[in-house]
Design a protein that fits this description.
The complex is a heterodimer of chains A (291) and B (339). Chain A has eleven helices and two strands. With 291 residues, chain A is mainly alpha-helical. The relative contact order of chain A is 0.20. Chain B has a two-stranded antiparallel sheet with strand order 1-2. Classes of the chains: A mainly alpha (291), B mainly alpha (339).
């Protein structure tokens, strides 16, 4: 039983990473109706910016804010210059664009900061809690994720801009008619997603270390968490992220023959199994289409 | 993601019903010229370039099969690297462990992949858009570790991979192994191409396109959605498996790490660059994903990824419909000049 609780707790700790990323994924999905394959690389770049600021002697929270603000701006710029001109091109073309963005960001980060692994500081310290299962940084990360979720909830529920963004995402035509600038709402969605990605990256980096390829696996888990929880629900995405972390850990512990190599495939297989029964994720809205 | 189906442009008539059958149309002439080049040029190339061309043709087969799935039936796959790997391993194991000659191992690999793809098509039936993308993605992620698994090591060679003997040309023909493999590949590619064109022009092909354009309308016209969607998955996987088998023979080595998600993404990219739903574009897309990364490498070593990305962006901005658009543009200009 103790083994079980420990595994669940450490699963929650890794799950916090995925939950963070899943939140960014859902954010962009709400805004543009696609999954952004370059999201992880954008977050990685933001984290490098924060790291660079720290190297220049800027205090932690200053670097944090600079990175988040710059990421927001960069997100808006990417939308304006790259994806807005693509406009109504087929979704497949958009995905090719994401792949291109992925390749460019990864390669540029590698050139500027090279591919060596760098440690990243944490503001929460790293004292072990609960008998060493979870570190204070991981606890801090969970708190930050939940805080972010609460803020997003308030933003989308009670602010004019938040409501306008939701309207633009669900019914663009009608949103236009009531005077919402749909194009800018999408750009704003990109900016917010990039900013959340930056926070996720900065929170994750102390755990998995900083390097240009750090996000590959994390983004995948983020997608999985988001899809499992339901892409239309930020709360679901966070829950999904935690669930993936726990599932992965339990599979690694209790199913014989599952080493580190097979953890991911097993988690994915479980998720596909879930999707077959709940095609819109566990907490997602069921999409009703008018014929 | 939901609108994958509606966004793809209707397929081009591969055969123009209005024209008399015997007339030599421009598209037909262009295909014949391409074919002639593919047959003749390798005779004058160094073995290494012949090998590269073989790889391009093999990738073209894989992209073609992805085109059948996405372009015709509107389903979406980021997992074709897995089917490719299954084909490669099936052929490799049959040839090395069961001593099956390669002319039999290749179709056998295709058949095995057809079954695997058909079965995978069933859970895929329930999923749409991103969810399907994720499920296929899971397949691509799961494949390499499974092939590396210790339990199957006797068959798959585990992490080490599997060496495959490259066949010699039969009847003592005086051409190198590389050239022989190339011509085998080309022949199979042509057969698959013709099969695919005929498939898409047949009743089943129209059923698939009807599903792509509007599922509800298709089902009310009496199209069996489940059957056709799973069949599309099966056929696409089967052709990809043949491509995988050919690659195992051409490279003479199967490495589990060659079939990662990146490969699946590359195939997807090749399809978009070639033009979704346009079968001849598969060759252009394959050439892009094989040659452009090399080119990018030679432009700048450190920034090769960035150069590659810029190339992709240039293509999707200038030609959002891929090589198809270029071909049609050239065709239209040529017509104008002729007038």
């Amino acid at each position: 039983m103790e083994l079980f609780t420990n595994q669940v707790l450490s699963g929650i700790a890794t799950g916090a990473i995925y939950a963070c990323m899943a939140l960014a994924v859902v954010m962009i999905y709400e805004a543009i109706d696609h999954l952004n394959f370059a999201q992880g690389e954008m977050a990685m770049f933001s984290t490098f910016i924060a790291w660079q600021c720290l190297q220049w002697g800027i205090p932690y929270w200053g670097a944090f804010i600079i990175s988040v603000v710059l990421s927001f701006v960069a997100g808006v710029i990417i939308e304006r210059t790259l994806f807005r001109p693509l406009g109504h091109a087929s979704i497949l073309v958009h995905i090719a664009g994401f792949i291109a963005l992925f390749a460019i960001i990864n390669s540029v980060a590698g050139l500027i900061w090279d591919f060596t692994i760098k440690p990243f500081p944490t503001p929460f310290g790293s004292t072990p809690l609960l008998g060493g299962v979870i570190s204070s940084h991981q606890a801090g990360m969970i708190v930050v994720t939940l805080l972010l979720l609460a803020l997003l909830y308030l933003f989308f529920r009670f602010t004019r801009v938040g409501l306008a963004m939701r309207a633009a995402a669900t019914l663009p035509e009608s949103a236009k008619l009531v005077g919402i600038n749909v194009g800018w709402m999408i750009a704003l969605g990109w900016g917010l997603a990039a900013a959340i990605g930056a926070i996720a990256g900065i929170m994750i980096a102390p755990v998995i270390f900083l390097e240009p390829n750090m996000m590959g696996g994390v983004l995948l888990y983020g997608f999985v968490g988001a899809v499992l929880g339901g892409l239309s629900s930020p709360g679901g995405a966070v829950a999904g992220g935690f669930m993936v972390g726990v599932l992965e850990n339990l599979a690694g512990t209790y199913i014989p023959g599952v080493g580190n190599e097979l953890k991911l495939p097993i988690a994915l297989a479980m998720i596909v199994a879930v999707l077959v029964f709940k095609p819109n994720g566990l907490f997602g809205r069921v999409q009703v289409q008018r014929v | 993601m939901m609108s994958t189906a509606q966004d793809t442009i209707p397929p081009i008539a591969t055969a123009n019903p209005a024209a008399p059958k015997s007339a030599l149309t421009v598209p037909l002439a262009a295909s014949l010229v391409t074919l002639a080049l593919l047959i003749v040029v390798p005779l004058f190339m160094k073995n290494f370039y012949v090998f590269q061309l073989t790889i391009i043709v093999i990738y073209a087969i894989a992209i073609l099969s992805l085109n059948i799935l996405t372009g015709a039936s509107g389903q979406f796959s980021l997992g074709h690297s897995a089917f490719f790997a299954v084909g490669a391993y099936a052929a490799g194991i049959l040839m090395e462990h069961a001593n099956v000659p390669y002319p039999l191992a290749i179709p056998a690999a295709g058949l095995i992949c057809f079954v695997v793809g058909f079965l995978f098509g069933f859970p895929a039936l329930r999923l749409k858009g991103v969810y399907l993308a994720l499920a296929t993605f899971a397949l691509a992620v799961a494949a390499p570790p499974l092939f590396k698994l210790g339990t199957f090591e006797h068959w798959t060679g585990g992490v080490q991979g599997l060496l495959v003997t490259k066949p010699d040309a039969p009847f003592g023909m005086a051409i190198s192994q590389d050239r022989w493999v190339y011509y085998v590949t080309l022949t199979i590619a042509i057969i698959i191409y013709l099969l695919s064109v005929n498939l898409l022009n047949s009743r089943s092909g129209r059923a698939l396109m009807a599903i792509r354009d509007n599922e509800i309308a298709a089902s009310s016209m009496g199209v069996d959605l489940a059957l056709y969607k799973t069949l599309a998955f099966g056929i696409s996987a089967g052709f990809t498996g043949i491509a995988g088998a050919l690659s195992a023979i051409a490279v003479a080595y199967i490495a589990p790490d060659a079939y990662t998600v990146n490969f699946a993404i590359a195939l997807f990219l090749g399809m978009v660059i070639g033009g979704v739903g346009w079968l001849p574009g598969s060759l252009a897309g394959a050439a892009f994903i094989v040659l452009v990364p090399n080119m990018a490498e030679s432009v700048s070593k450190g920034l090769s990824g960035a150069v590659f990305g810029v190339f992709i962006i240039a293509v999707i901005f200038l030609l959002p419909n891929g090589a198809r658009q270029l071909a049609y543009f050239v065709y239209a200009q040529a017509k104008k000049l002729a007038k």
